[in-house]
Design goal:
Blueprint: E1 4-5, E2 10-12, H1 14-17, H2 33-42, H3 48-51, H4 58-72, E3 75-77, E4 83-92, E5 95-107, E6 116-117, H5 124-137, E7 139-140, E8 144-148, H6 154-162, E9 169-172, E10 178-184, H7 187-196, E11 202-206, H8 208-224, E12 233-240, E13 247-249, E14 252-255, H9 262-265, E15 273-279, H10 284-294, E16 298-302, E17 307-313, H11 318-322, H12 328-331, H13 334-344, H14 351-356, E18 360-363, H15 366-374, E19 380-383, H16 389-397, E20 408-410, E21 420-421
Parallel strand pairs: 6-11, 8-12
Antiparallel strand pairs: 1-5, 2-3, 4-5, 4-10, 5-12, 7-21, 8-11, 9-10, 13-20, 14-18, 14-19, 15-17, 16-17, 16-19
């Protein structure tokens, strides 16, 4: 099963580099160029310079910058092999939550072995970018986010015990998420923790592109005889799948430039759904949550005028009948139901169109989805409930992948607290 190990992480020397809250940033793929420039204007040593390089030769420049920061002491390597315990604390909807996991090196395994399992499809362009960066820097700047099952929660209990003291690093970001990092170097504790994972499978929550890139980089090193063994591992953050602080948010679908009038075709959904019209968009999330809690498969259709239609699936086997080769777990996903029964069969938007986002845009914020319709930039929006964590596990265990943008784990892991140089 999963093989994990400690490593000598690279971390910022704050006396030389500056305050940690000015050195870290969110994941590279959600940062605009304006935001990137803002991070660098606050501190020229922000990790974004390495994680999202720009310019004529961005990857070569990132590699050169990394080596300069190490030689000048901006970045320093841990004296001993360590495991890093990482906690995020946040408030959403008036409720304060936190979750904690460990950042370690994980041995890379092909998906076919069933030890490390994906749950979403990936795009080749993103993988090419990350591969070029790895070749130039030989380093993981951000950790892949993965989940594991632990019915007795013994691993989380161990992590809580090891992180009972003051953290090595602590900061609160612009989204009021507090990040804490503890460094564990005790060899006995590390050995015990590694043993805890000897019977575990890992389910990738966020970072599919980076994991596939790490596999490609490992193979590249083997083919070219440039490896030293470290490329067989990748940096991951591991979290108990049933941690009470774990939160998955929905990603809504917004449609534009349709060749049909959505209001004229939405009633065709009556073949598969019970349809009820409501007034006032402020009730959408509450009504959907009620359905979510009762186990119904439902989503809301909004095309403006402060009215929406609630679609509740009549026959929960409807998708299975159309996709007999897919597992029950896949066919029961809200996104599978929406894509298969509504977007493809009713609106005529096929999977290639969705992948290229020709008529479809993915929006995380409920208010943004509604505004896109009210402002006229979109014709309609489908508001979804979040995917359940156990659904992610079941689809991955079936050897399948969810449609793109099926999950949104909140909050994102911050980049820059610790890095994994592959030496």
């Amino acid at each position: 099963m999963a093989e994990i190990k400690a490593f000598k992480g690279l971390r910022f020397d704050r006396e030389k580099a500056g305050d940690i809250d000015k050195l870290t940033c969110p994941p590279y793929d959600i940062i605009s160029e304006e935001e990137r420039q803002a991070y660098l204007s606050e501190n020229e040593h922000n990790i974004i310079r390495l994680e999202l390089p720009k310019g004529d030769e961005p990857y070569r420049t990132a590699g050169q910058t990394l080596r300069e920061w190490i030689s000048s002491g901006i970045l320093g390597k841990e004296d001993k092999d360590a495991v890093y315990i990482y906690e995020e604390e946040f408030t959403l909807g008036g409720v304060t939550r936190s979750f904690k996991g460990c950042i370690v090196r994980v041995k890379l395994e092909e998906f076919s072995k069933g030890i490390i399992l994906p749950h979403e499809e990936t795009l080749s362009k993103a993988k090419e970018d990350r591969f070029n960066l790895m070749k130039a820097t030989n380093c993981n700047f951000s950790q892949i986010y993965s989940l594991f099952t632990d019915e007795r929660h013994s691993i989380t209990n161990r992590l809580d015990s090891l992180s009972s003291g003051k953290p090595e690093s602590e900061l609160t970001d612009c989204n009021n998420v507090t990040h804490r990092l503890w460094v564990v170097t005790d060899e006995n504790e590390i050995s015990a923790l590694c043993s805890d994972f000897s019977d575990k499978k890992l389910y990738i929550a966020d970072g599919h592109h980076r994991y596939e890139t790490a596999l490609n980089y490992r193979n590249y090193c083997r083919e070219n005889g440039t490896g030293n063994g470290a490329e067989d591992y990748v940096m991951m953050m591991l979290v108990d799948m049933e941690h009470p602080g774990l939160l998955v948010l929905p990603t809504h679908r917004v449609l534009r430039n349709l060749s049909v009038n959505p209001d004229e075709v939405i009633d065709k959904c009556g073949e598969y759904f019970d349809i009820t019209e409501y007034s006032g968009t402020d009730t959408i999330e509450t009504v959907l949550k009620e359905r979510y809690d009762s186990g119904d498969k439902a989503f809301a259709y909004y095309s403006g005028k402060n009215k929406y239609k609630l679609l509740v699936l009549k026959d929960k086997t409807a998708v299975s009948k159309l996709l007999p080769g897919k597992s029950a777990a896949y066919c029961g996903l809200d996104v599978s139901i929406l894509h298969t029964l509504v977007l493809e069969r009713i609106f005529g938007i096929d999977s290639e169109n969705m992948a290229k986002q020709i008529n479809l845009t993915y929006v995380k914020e409920f208010e943004a989805a509604i505004f896109s319709v009210d402002s006229g930039s979109a014709q309609c929006a489908f508001i979804l409930n979040p995917t359940k964590v156990e659904e992610i596990k079941d689809v991955a265990a079936a050897g399948e992948k969810m449609p793109q943008k099926s999950t949104y784990f909140y909050p994102k892991l911050i980049t820059g607290l610790v890095m994994n140089e592959l030496v």
